[in-house]
Amino acid sequence: xxxxxxxxxxxxxxxxxxxxxxxxxxxxxxxxxxxxxxxxxxxxxxxxxxxxxxxxxxxxxxxxxxxxxxxxxxxxxxxxxxxxxxxxxxxxxxxxxxxxxxxxxxxxxxxxxxxxxxxxxxxxxxxxxxxxxxxxxxxxxxxxxxxxxxxxxxxxxxxxxxxxxxxxxxxxxxxxxxxxxxx
Length: 183
Hints:
Elements: E1 9-10, E2 16-19, E3 24-29, E4 32-37, E5 43-47, E6 50-54, H1 60-81, E7 84-91, E8 96-100, E9 103-107, E10 114-117, E11 122-129, E12 132-139, H2 142-154, E13 165-168
Antiparallel strand pairs: 1-6, 2-3, 3-4, 5-6, 7-12, 7-13, 8-9, 9-10, 11-12
């Protein structure tokens, strides 16, 4: 039995789960609404505020899907209840991030500013705390929040010599020694 798949998913108050006859799952909560199409072999049961995921056989395919769908559903429940957040830090002279309505303007040392539009369901905020510049990505969909944060980070990844670039606040960049003077 999958150790992850057999764990029940507790549904907090304010979160409702609807499972259609075609195994389409819709999770609604205070932070939004998410939906997922679950494989027809996987069975879902909801009773007393607990959602359980079960598989029909011990085939390798069913074992893999068992844990996968349980994790995806647990992430959906947490996302619509609490939401997900990724925080990025801009490090570099002249780097700046400002919000213009729903548009994020980034100045990252290129000859032009970069404008970034967040997809629906994701919110971007930019904040200056002293000399540090932070961009926060929030939303209910864990995959979408991570994807948007990765795209922003990819605009100027941190480099190992001076440490300049965009990095996650939890990320550590291994620094390299620069050139040494010859004789």
